[in-house]
């Protein structure tokens, strides 16, 4: 029927769309792809304060959360630390989501009985 043909076309379009929007498997992969656009401190004068390694910015959110030794470190190491924190947060969030889903299922089962 005509409807089936239209549905098939729609599905193809959607699948094609999914193929073109490439999801990142990890923060590392995203950085590997967009790394060129990220300016590391020290390489340029227009540095975002959030990843700046200067001590004159105590308000930096990364600084407050970092419980790292304050040994003289290069911007690259510091940047990697930030990435590790992000990855840890993502993993944590995934775990939380999974636990919430499990709890939801348990609630549904309890209500069904």
UniProtKB/TrEMBL annotation:
Domain of life: Eukaryota
Biased composition, class Polar residues, residue ranges: 41-70
Feature: compositional bias, Basic and acidic residues: 1-20
Region Disordered: start-end pairs: 1-22, 41-77
Protein name in UniProt: WEB family protein
Highest classification ranks of the organism: Eukaryota, Viridiplantae, Streptophyta, Embryophyta, Tracheophyta
């Amino acid at each position: 029927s005509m409807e089936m043909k239209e549905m098939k076309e729609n599905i193809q379009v959607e699948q094609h769309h999914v193929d073109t929007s490439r999801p990142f498997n990890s923060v590392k992969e995203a950085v590997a792809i967009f790394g060129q656009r990220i300016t590391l401190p020290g390489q340029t004068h227009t540095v975002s304060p959030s990843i700046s390694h200067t001590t004159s910015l105590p308000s930096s959110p990364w600084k407050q959360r970092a419980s790292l030794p304050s040994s003289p470190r290069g911007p690259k190491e510091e940047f990697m630390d930030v990435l590790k924190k992000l990855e840890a947060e993502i993993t944590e969030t995934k775990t939380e989501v999974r636990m919430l889903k499990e709890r939801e299922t348990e609630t549904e089962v309890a209500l069904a009985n």
